[in-house]
Amino acid sequence: MLKKLSIAAAIAVLSISAQAQTANPIYVGADIGSTKVDGLTDNKTSYGAFAGYKFSENFAAEVAYRQLFKTDVGPVSVDGTQTAVSVLGIAPISKEFQVFGRLGYNQLKASASFAGRSGSGTDSGVLYGVGVQYQFTANIGARLEFQKPASDTKNFSAGVTYSF
Fold this sequence. Notes:
Helix content is 12%, strand content 70%.
């Protein structure tokens, strides 16, 4: 009898733990930030959106799109974007506060236009970053993040997340 009761208690504890970790596994978010590209004289405003799935308390996967920068280099207008897929390793510090690391793959696209003519080019490679997230409620959070989408590009952003 004691053995059956112990097994039942263990199953109940594990199921409660599993429910707590995956209560809101799907999330979306938006961010605004600053991008620095080597060779450009100043930082440029960035903004983006992302969606993710949290597999457990410690791992998530995300897809994202970000407008990295828009700038004019003399008479040439240049627009840089990022499309990315990544895995996040998450270390909960408390119930509300998390630190995360990002490793992924991204495609960068630069489009330029001058006197009615335009052209574009792409580059792809490894994306990595680190950040912190604070959960105000079970559904709403805020994050700060540093990303390195290319060897000559850095992005720092602040965003909000909504889990459902």
